[in-house]
Amino acid sequence: SADEVVRLHVVTRDGTRREVAGKVGDNLLYLCHRLRKTHPDITLEGACEASLACSTCHVIVSEKYFDMLPEPCEEEEDMLDEATCLTSTSRLGCQIKLTRALDGIEVTLPPYSRNYYVDGHVPEPH
Ligand code: FES
Known about the structure:
20% strand; alpha+beta
């Protein structure tokens, strides 16, 4: 059901591994915004509000789970090209929707993302 809990691990920008939880259907970006209330070091920005016009929601997905995600659309590929710290398992967090199968997923926040690095701005949690 939609209320099903999905456990995840978020590795923060300083390398701390946080065990947190979301629900089936959650958008990873907005989940991270909510999680900032209890975990201030989960700083996934999302400057363009999930409109595929930035790369500040860049996350690195653990390989096993990366392979389970639907293919990125062309706009996501283009934005990822702009991302700092790009890896072969990079995705935009705002394009990841939690499913039952993703239970246990690990996502790493790269050491910095472009806007975060330039102006240090992190929006308040939603
Ligand atoms: Fe800008 Fe995801 S929030 S592309």
